């Protein structure tokens, strides 16, 4: 048996996204832009990109790998 919130919450989210958001979002968008500026998001992604390019290592794995293709069958 599925609990009531597991059914009601997705339905309410769908109703909001489909019918209410087109009318509500233009009203609240200016307030959201003041609270959460886009520059902050762009600066963090740019900083991560520069750090990756400078040291050449991603997640502890070397960026340069061998490009040789080995033949499994040697007749």
From TrEMBL:
Pfam families in UniProt = DUF4512 (PF14975)
Which family, according to UniProt?
Belongs to the UPF0729 family.
What is the designated name of this protein?
UPF0729 protein C18orf32
The taxonomic lineage of its organism, from the top, reads: Eukaryota, Metazoa, Chordata, Craniata, Vertebrata
């Amino acid at each position: 048996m599925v609990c009531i919130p597991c059914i009601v919450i997705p339905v309410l989210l769908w109703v909001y996204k489909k019918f209410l958001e087109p009318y509500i979002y233009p009203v609240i968008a200016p307030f959201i832009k003041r609270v959460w500026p886009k520059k902050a998001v762009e600066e963090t992604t740019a900083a991560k990109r520069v750090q990756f390019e400078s040291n050449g290592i991603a997640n502890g794995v070397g960026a340069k790998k061998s490009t040789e293709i080995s033949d499994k069958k040697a007749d």
